[in-house]
Amino acid sequence: MKQSLTRLLALALCLSGGLLYSQSGQPFWSEDFTNNIPANWTNVDASPAGVIWVWCQDNVTNCAPVFVGEDPFNATSASSGFVHVNSDAPGQLAQDHVSRLTTPAIDCSGKDKVYLQFESHIGTFATTPAASALLRVSTDNNTWKDYVIFPDLTTQNSFSENPVVSIIDITDKAANQSTVYLQWQWIGNYEYMWDLDDIRLFDENPTAKFDLAISNFFYPASSFATPASQISTDTFGFFVVVTNRGTDAMTNVKAKVTVEDNDTGEILFSDSTSAAVLDPGVTDTALVMPNNFAPELPEGAYFIRYTISADSADLRPSNNEDGSPFVVTNTVFSKENVPQTTTRTADDVPWSVGNFYTMSAGALDQYRATTAEFTYSTDSTELPITNVIASINLYKIKDDVAEDFSDFDVNEYPGNSVDWVGFADYTAPPDMVGGLLQQVELFDFNTLESGVILEPGARYFLMTEYPNIARKTNHAFNLDILYYNVVSTVTYSDMWYLGGFGDEFAAVLRMYISLVTTTDDKPLPDRVLKLFPNPVVDQVNLALDFDNPTDVTITIADINGRVIRLEDRQGVTKEQVTYQLPGLSSGTYLARIATKEGTKTLQFVVQH
Prior knowledge:
By secondary structure, the chain is mostly beta strands. The protein folds into 4 domains: 23-202, Jelly Rolls (Sandwich); 212-329, Immunoglobulin-like; 332-515, Jelly Rolls; 526-606, Immunoglobulin-like (Sandwich). The chain contains 3 helices and 42 strands. The strands form 8 sheets. Strands 2, 4, 5, 7, 10, 11 and 13 form a 7-stranded antiparallel sheet that branches. The longest helix has 4 residues, at 129-132.
């Protein structure tokens, strides 16, 4: 599916970077752009657009980023100068720019082998970097041979590592030649940027002997943000994908995962596995951790961290660690933490975008979806932002749809694989600006009452649908969480796309939940729950008393049912639990326990 990207919001990718030079030989030619683009280089745009490479004095104060919040170029010597071509600045061009940066003639006489190494970082929108951004080599500055720089970036809307360290064998063209020209050519139109630095020519392979890299990892959370009431019965499994980029075998390759509390740094879970040997050139080997983690976690921020090591010291350790955050919330499901960019289908048809959310099968209380939150932008020449209308719909995925969605009906919308259970209508307010978060109240499709009751263990798509008049709306996305292991963000235009716009595009479309009721329809005996002190300052104590071991869901909520703390406990008889409640404003709150037999709710007052 084609897509159109609007450059209105921040782009911040978490990518690897840095190079420690470790090769045994020294370069016989190099360029670091410390003092500008050398005068004897050629810098042209072969089209009339005039999009050429420019010198950046450093990676902090010079060469404004294409996006607010864009990470600086992380090449080894970028802080003392690099070159950069900004395809975004000219906007949509009448024809593609053909930006070419060419060295003067380089003498490679007496060099039986010639390897080129350089560091770069690219972002493209409408073109595929593997085909549009090339290294070209010539011996006469006329006839050129093309070399692929970004073989793994084979789709549109692609971003490389920051930096990519490219090592290209150009022996077939450059060996023993007295005049060799190197050219970096980018053909594109309203792309992002391409940064380049630290160019080296070697007469032997500069690839490090020992270089392990994490090429991918398993992100076990089904959503970036999950309410505590829904994450407690989830189970996390872990694996990391490792590549040996070096020239020598790596022995005793160890992979480790930790789940960490972001605030305290405490390691909540740790596991590891190993491989006896990883030969050079072996790519994408999955190392699976033997144990799982049950994230019975309170509200807070957490991080999943993967690290790899081996007997030999890694000569490029910057790619030996990776990971992603997740958060446990009071009431909100979300696939992201902040809007960063916006996109839409380019088919110029009504379209929809949505997120996949799953309810816990183990919660003993009942919850409802109350609110949807999202944001967007427009090009004012196509559609004034205050003219945007949208429908927000909640669809329950039918129980007989396979867990891997292999039998999902992708041809019809909403189709036979879902039931329509909730809705909301949205009209942009007169003060709407791009990126401003919008909230709408959800209503039950059958009863028309506020809030949609969510079934334990059920799966849902929360969708924003842009009809004819609003089809040019660009929905907001985040690009930080790259490795969702399940269906995450989906789209619909001519059919359902269960991969959305790609793994890295997480839609800003959040779902808030609350308790269905704060009354006790099946009240438990008074003795099962006692609460003290009351009033409360910053700590509440609950005394639980059951005749037999009982599974209990404990909820602390505000008077409207918004969950503040939640915990599942198994096999409770007589027990006292304490909850720290700092930061709560003065007012009335609820302490509630739910079992299979019923519920008990008590009110308490917070006073400061």
